[in-house]
Design brief:
Strand order of the largest sheet: 1-2
Radius of gyration: 19 Å
Number of domains: 1
Number of helices: 5
Shape: globular
Order of helices and strands: EEHHHHH
């Protein structure tokens, strides 16, 4: 069942679906859950998980990849995905610079909380450089998603004008 909200836009009745908003928040929460799951792993288990990913890279012929690179790539990709998720979720409320700012601040706050959480995990600890890397990853995801939103709006406008 889809929940609908009716608003008046330029004298016309427009139906807004709350389904997108709900999906956006579920996307954000699932990425946050994944981040906390990985951060909650003791150092020994985290190294095993990274080792598994390293083996995958090596099986594709990337033998010069290091464990350090795999771990940092994981930070970047996870937080780029979180940047995309926040941008999608907040796009129902904000546009432009407000959208980018709220998305970036939310992802950076999450990075800080994620690193702080590691203080309580055996063999793990917070690192400022990981917060910086996470923030850069989030910014990358936000830029990608913002460009995607702009492209979507442009294509939607072109489609409507062709009708």
């Amino acid at each position: 069942m889809e929940i609908m909200n009716k608003t008046i836009v330029a004298g016309q009745l427009k139906k807004e679906s709350h389904t997108g908003k709900l999906l956006g928040m579920l996307f954000v929460l699932s990425i946050i859950g994944a981040a906390f799951y990985f951060s909650a792993q003791p150092a020994s288990i985290s190294k095993l998980q990274s080792g598994t990913i390293l083996n995958v890279f090596e099986s594709f012929g990337f033998e010069n990849i290091t464990m350090h690179f795999v771990r940092k790539l994981a930070h970047f990709v996870l937080f780029a995905t979180l940047g995309v998720a926040f941008t999608f979720a907040f796009s129902f409320k904000f546009t432009g610079i407000k959208l980018a700012t709220f998305s970036y601040l939310s992802a950076t706050l999450m990075a800080i909380l994620d690193e702080t959480h590691q203080m309580f995990v055996p063999g793990r600890g917070p690192q400022v450089k990981d917060v910086i890397l996470d923030s850069v990853g989030a910014l990358f995801g936000i830029v990608l998603m913002t460009l995607g939103i702009l492209l979507y709006k442009k294509l939607k406008k072109a489609y409507r004008s062709s009708l």
